């Protein structure tokens, strides 16, 4: 019963965290526009898979590493920022789709999943989710896995909206110049997330 009582508040928390702008959603929008929704699915599912593993690991004690070793958090921010800047550069310099014969590659499942471990917003979500909504009674591992799975089910439609939004934008953009402006803007927005990471 305690578990069921936490699902409503946990749902509201996950909706508020995953439907708002952040590195994942900006990149999903850019990917949807450039590659379409279907080709963006591995990226989208990779976000879910990476967050699931991260959330479960946090519940099982990985979050304590931050408390005991603050240097780990600093290193994570630096690594995450560097990788995010690399992804921002990839987005900003992506060629217009199908206009120059080049066939770019969206992020793979594993690339997107690995990014979650360097994504401070994912860590904040995981730490808050597990600290606030993990039931105290019962098997911790089972509860952690169930809560992480439930959180990702709630997140799925929220992040899918961003990929769908990008796909819709991609249908309206015409000409190489418009694509360069769009990709440059999305790259800049992705890079701007570093300010919040390091701030």
From TrEMBL:
<feature type="transmembrane region" description="Helical">
    <location>
        <begin position="181"/>
        <end position="198"/>
    </location>
</feature>
<dbReference type="InterPro" id="IPR001123">
    <property type="entry name" value="LeuE-type"/>
</dbReference>
<feature type="transmembrane region" description="Helical">
    <location>
        <begin position="42"/>
        <end position="66"/>
    </location>
</feature>
<protein>
    <submittedName>
        <fullName>LysE family translocator</fullName>
    </submittedName>
</protein>
<feature type="transmembrane region" description="Helical">
    <location>
        <begin position="75"/>
        <end position="92"/>
    </location>
</feature>
<dbReference type="Pfam" id="PF01810">
    <property type="entry name" value="LysE"/>
</dbReference>
<keyword id="KW-0812">Transmembrane</keyword>
<keyword id="KW-1003">Cell membrane</keyword>
<keyword id="KW-0472">Membrane</keyword>
<keyword id="KW-1133">Transmembrane helix</keyword>
<feature type="transmembrane region" description="Helical">
    <location>
        <begin position="144"/>
        <end position="169"/>
    </location>
</feature>
